[in-house]
Amino acid sequence: MLMRILTLLMCLNFAQMLSLADEATLLGLHGNEKSPMAGEKTLVVGCFRMKAEDLDFHVTPEGHYHIKLKGKTQLVCGQTRLSADQMNATFKYRDRGEIELAGNVEIENIHDQLRMFAREARIFWSKQRRTLILNNRDHELVRLIRMSDKKTTLVEASKIHIGYLKPHQLRILAVENSKIEERPCRSTDKVKFEATERSGFDFFDKISITEFSAHHGKKTSRGSQKISKTEFLQLLK
User: Where is the signal peptide (predicted)?
Assistant: First the structure.
């Protein structure tokens, strides 16, 4: 009986190792191995295309992927492109992860024709939620630009939070000193770049903008105003 139990435990452990190996193979990585391409300027791994002056990644035996990019960094995943001076990313399997961006942050998405600018940004997700935070320093404003067929909408604020309200829907919250402007579309407004294969790691995959709230002035201001969902959707048409 003892031998049977030991044999069963060994089989379960081996099956777990195979599962982790299969997951790593999907991204072109091998467990407990550092990328031999670390330090090169361009790297394509599964749905990710990375560029940086200093590039390094590795995968742990648990199947967690760690990516560090420094110097004119760029990470493309699906229809979303992230750019910054420095970027750190951790992917825990395919349903949990976090990305931190610092310095000259630009986030672009082809499907929703979105472009965002900030000094710093954080992206984190799990099975239950996804959140993107744009932040600046020294009273600078972050910007979010949405282009439609006929016009471009510009949103500025001290901070912008983007996250899921429910599956396939986004909520955008502009905090402090927020404003919305409209102007005719320009050819330079269009978001265009070479996308990679579709992936659940793409923050904007299978979701659409459904709500926008803007608070003018400081959070403690009694004169705060809120733009309704209907009003904002009219702006984005």
Answer: 1-21
